[in-house]
Predict the 3D structure of the following.
Amino acid sequence: EVDPTAFAGMKIVESSDKGTRTISQPQKILDAVRAHVPELLDSKVPPPDLLKGKALNDALDALVLTPLAAGQKVTRAGKAVQKGTGSAKYYEQGTHPEDSVRVHRLSSVMSNPPDTALPCVRSVIAEAYQRMHAGITYRADITPPERTVVDGRVTMSLADGAPSELEGAADASTAFPRLLYSMHVTHAGGVVLHKCKKIGTKIDQTAKDIYEAELFGTIAVSQEIVFGRLFLRAMGESFDGPTRILTDSLSGARVVNCAKSAGRSRPFLWRCAVVQELAQQRIIEVLHVKEEQNPADYLTKYLDRAKTKLSADYSRGVAHETKT
């Protein structure tokens, strides 16, 4: 179809002037509710086992993976968690980035979920149900958000929305016992890729080094930017300069732009040789941004409600609606 209304489980709505397209997954979320929290559809009173806010976050943080012993099988509740997490992962990766941290917590115990994970996954799906029609809007014309760059540092505001051109951001968290990194890539004013991933097997977990973790996120998102540039070039888009990658690690940004800044972290330089070369070739430009304005910050940790909404609005392209 020239103007499809659905694709791969996503609803597509195009504005009458063809200036915007919004993707959402209400049917996928509704299917998840029917399968895992059907009481929400049959009663006005929420099930008593559902958790919210900090109580839900604490319950998710308390989940511990216990490897299956020889001959042991996943419990019935564990199988329900596996199926529920699979359903949540599908819509989270598509159009619900604000669920990334919570779904990652569930994914971390997928091979043998404890029974305590069942109310957690039901609660995560129930919260998504409250915003099942939320989507991501992409725009043909965007008033460029202000980006002031001085000495490798960018001053910006999430409230201004994402730019029309390709842009990446990375973040990391070393809060024990999890080492995580996140990637956030936008184009046409909305997020096109967001991920929260574990990095415990990729760097020295005993070091708990936030610098290395942040730099690993930058390296990972640089690879996605390279693929994104190739794809967009094949679609006819040209690039006059490097693509920005935002990080709230000033040390990491300086090392990418100048290896001499590594100091005592020189043993880690081999990991970032490729991203340094991309910067030298002007394919990417790594810039430091304050943590509170980093688009990828809410993909690695729980934030307060206001910051989470601000970040989600940035990802969804909602910020541009308040300016029109």
